[in-house]
Hints:
eight-stranded mixed beta sheet, alpha/beta
Amino acid sequence: MKTFIASLSTETNSFSPLPTGMLSFEEAVIAHGDASRGPVQYWSAPMRLWREAAEERGWPVVESLTAHAQPAGPTVRTVYEGFRDEILRDLEAAMPVDVVLLSLHGAMMADGYEDCEGDLIARCRQVVGRDAVIGALLDPHCHLTEAMIEAATLLVAYREYPHVDIPERAQDLFALAADAAEGRTRPVMRDHDCRMICAMHTPREPMRGFVEAMKAREREPGILSLSLAHGFPWGDHPRVGARMLAIADGDAELADSTARAMGDRLFAMRREVAPAYPDIDAALARAAAAPAGPVVLADVSDNAGGGAPSDATFLLEAILARGLTNVASGVYWDPVAVRICREAGEGATLPLRLGGKCGPMSGRPLDLEVTVRRVAEGLTQRFGELSTPLGQTVWLSLAGDIDLVINDQRTQTFHPEAFTGLGIDLAGKAIVCVKSSQHFYAGFAPIAAEVIHVATPGAITPDFANIPYTRRAPNYWPKMEDPFA
């Protein structure tokens, strides 16, 4: 079975002020056919796993592009079309192909394309014909479009949020594709619109139980795979929102009824699923009153992983105004400040204007007196068990035992290594602030006395009823109390 593998991914925030162009991909990764041979990072792990699984079976493998960019605004049209066409040229040159495996996101939009993944999968289908198996691995924060479902044989989304199960789900997709290609199964996909938009954190109940219920249902006869597309709330798309996807073995009615049943189950527990988000004042009051630390505060609205700039100052400004001490905060994306600190050198004390550079959603710049404690290059942090780069990174100290981490490569805060790699001891901190919506949780929860997701101002505020959609109908909870009425 000749297998073709490729990867193209970014998550598009329709309201982000940052365009996604070639520089964004170059800063993350662009590999032309050899990503599976290099160091394993979270965007290349599926490619490595698929190559190894195919080669273990003696299947020839043709590897094409791997390109990944940090989430931001719509991708520049020529950039998307160039990447897409490279994959298609490689696929045409590899023909005949039995299995196509694509590591995608599912919420990528470009100028002129509201559904990049659907466009790519459909064009792949035109090349390989109707008998080849096309499987796509998706982030659960995808839009799960009709074009994807119609053109693909199999769609599999990560189950966990934070996404610590990427390798596991890549393996699941390969196994499903192998069974289909060798004639053991006949996958049929159906989806159900749950008509809800909110954050769904899988480590806690009731989402923990829902994920386990999906796994249990897959062990029953007839169902090959279940995936929940949480949707990406800040993508202005007609299909944004939660959708349940079921893949059955040759039975469309079973796939449809299972997707509806699981979707109805999710909708019934929507109020319990949606996490509470205190504002800055309430969150800081809770943190200050905590008997022990560290209390981890998630600056959810300035998460680079959702397309935010990651330079917002709202939470830090409030901490300084209240005179709170013994705080660590990061990672702030501020290449200008990083350059100044590198120039000044370790040990230097200087006035520094930090953050607030990308627009109103970033707050105002803060003028601080800082000491450069360490300047580092080549540091990484873990996302699950996979590493991600931090770029040029600087540890700054302020009076009051406040430590800040700034860098020049935009990324969310995944793991305590973003601090400890520089030498910052988090164990003795009263408060640790992280710029992330939920991916931080796997790394920080084990060291936290308490975790608080804070409804900060910013580019991805968790006010799901009032996101200014122009493409999505308002028939979803919490915009409507009963969108099925």
